[in-house]
């Protein structure tokens, strides 16, 4: 879960309702310090707190979480990136060439 993205979405919704962090924190019965940490993506939140937030905002949980849960593609791309980032430029180019060959093979085979 990307807590920074979740925090940004929560901040956007709070601002949409013209609420301060302190006002929202009071509305959902948490401390304003905790509210600030949630919005900055520094703290996770309980399901109970998440439920109170969506009820206060008048949105669904899936709307609030939409940007914060990575898709399978983004997870795979991040794994590729972590592997490639540690390599020198020459190896990076070799890896790209190998991937091109592999995908070319798949296209020819109809897989």
Give me the secondary-structure topology:
Elements: H1 3-16, H2 21-28, H3 32-39, H4 47-57, H5 61-65, H6 72-85, H7 89-109
Could you characterize the architecture of this molecule?
This protein is an all-alpha fold. 73% of the residues lie in helices and 0% in strands. It contains seven helices and no strands.
What Rg do the Cα atoms give?
21 Å
Tell how many strands the DSSP assignment holds.
0
Average pLDDT figure: 89
Report the β-strand fraction as a percent range. Answer: under 5%
Number of helices: 7
- Unreliable runs, pLDDT <50, ≥5 residues? none
Distance between the termini: 32 Å
Helical proportion, percent range? over 70%
Summarize the entry for a quick read:
The chain is an all-alpha fold and 111 residues long.
Keywords:
0% strand, 111 residues, 7 helices, single chain, mainly alpha
